[in-house]
Each structure stands twice: as C-alpha cells, then as structure tokens.
Amino acid sequence: MLITEQSSLYNDLEKKSVREILEDINREDQKVALAVQQTIPQIEKLVNQIVPRMKQGGRIFYLGAGTSGRLGVLDASEIPPTFGMPPSWVIGLIAGGDSALRNPVEGAEDDTDQGWKKLTEHHINDKDIVIGIAASGTTPYVIGALREARKNGILTGCITSNPDSPMAAESDVAIEMIVGPEYVTGSSRMKSGTGQKMILNMISTSVMIQLGRVKGNKMVNMQLSNHKLVERGTRMIMEELGLNHEEAQELLLLHGSVKKAIGAYRIR
C-alpha cells in the first residue's frame, strides 16, 4: 500500500477534544520539515539544472491535480509580485484547468494526454523545465506529461510523498518527501501539501536568488502593487542610499523598482 494511503496513526478522531486534535496535527506537522530536509540534495540537483536553462530563456512549468496542482499555481502566481518576473517565466498548470482551482473536475487527473497537450499550447521546448507534483506519485495527468517531456529532451522533476513511484520513474530528478500517513487517512492536503509548499518555496526562491532577483536579503525587484510594498521599497532605498523618506519614495515611484531606483541614483 502507498504510504500516502496508509491508515492514520490516530484513531477515534471524532471522540477527541479540539485541543487534542490540534496538538495531534501539530505533532504530525513537525515531521514535515525533517522529511523535507532529507530531500535537500535532490532539490539542489534540480535547482542547479534549472538556473542555466532559465538564463537561456527557459521556463518552469508546474503540473499537478487537486491540492498539488493548486500549490503549483500558487507558487507560480507569486513570482511576478515578489521578484518582478514576467508571469510567463514560471507557469502552474492544474488538471481540469483554472476552474479546478476552486472546484474538483471529475476525471481530469486521469487523462494521460491532457498535461502534455497543455504544455504544447505553451510551445514548450528543451530549454524549459517540467516539475510534476503529486503526493501519490501515480497521477496519470502528471505522468503522461513528464513522459512526453522527457522524450522531447526536456528536464523533468517531481515532488511526491511515496518512494519509487511511476511519476519518479519519468523524472530526471525525483524529490521524494516521505512524511508518513496523514492525520486523516489519505488526506494528502495535510502533511504532503505542507511539504510540497515548502519545497516549492525552496525551488523558486533559490532559483530567483541565483538569477539576481534579490540583493542582500531584499526583494529589490518586487512589484509596487500596493501601499505596503511602496513603503517597503522606500525603506530599502532609504537604508541603501541614506535618503529621507520623501526623496526615496519619489525615486522609487519614478523608476518603478528598488533595483532600478538605486542603479539610476548611483550613475547620476
């Protein structure tokens, strides 16, 4: 039996108090970071192959169904505002399309051909990277896409919670995060989902740092999409250039990003 389908270590959940349930879930969640830690060599291997491809114009595609698909779309959607990258650089695809972000689409994950079809609509090429996400490692939508991508010389990776899965067999780099049975049996939105989010954070953040989208520890390329981010950018410029608030904000709004504002000021 797949680890993700094994029975919970806890019984009679409906008889537990709220405090007991919360403490049990938290106890299980503490196992996730340790499971992710064990996968760092594989994450590093994948990132080291992603960076040179993206420097040549390659893109990352995340593919998944259900929770896994939603987490891929989430990570992809946060790249433009956080790092100032075009939305075409990291793309999240979910079985069943965007409507599946809110509602389950019956049978979508069982379609072996649909994932690759979606990738071809984006004119995928051998500079790109395809990362499949599935706790079970058995999702046909993802496996079919990875298989075709690999046939076409495209780098493939995966994030799964079961060892030696069919999805891993189609991946150049398999990230196998073994978090154990879920608190509610089979509910991979819990520990597996938490671990997937952590790994996606690690992949995208380390890639963006390597691509020069962070300076020091600051998001110098973030989009100025609200007052909070304008103020954050203003403070960065004040600290970096020693300007007062008014001067720093005027410079920021003139150039549109912290990085551009600082660069323009220094070449005056």
Automatic annotation (TrEMBL):
CDD domains documented for this protein: SIS_Etherase (cd05007)
Enzyme superclass (EC): lyase
One GO MF term: carbohydrate derivative binding
Domain SIS residue range list: 50-213
EC number: 4.2.1.126
Family statement drawn from the similarity comment of this UniProt entry: Belongs to the GCKR-like family. MurNAc-6-P etherase subfamily.
PANTHER family: GLUCOKINASE REGULATORY PROTEIN
Oligomer status and interactors: Homodimer.
NCBIfam families: N-acetylmuramic acid 6-phosphate etherase, PRK05441.1, PRK12570.1
Protein name as it appears in the record: N-acetylmuramic acid 6-phosphate etherase
Annotated organism of origin: Bacteroides faecichinchillae
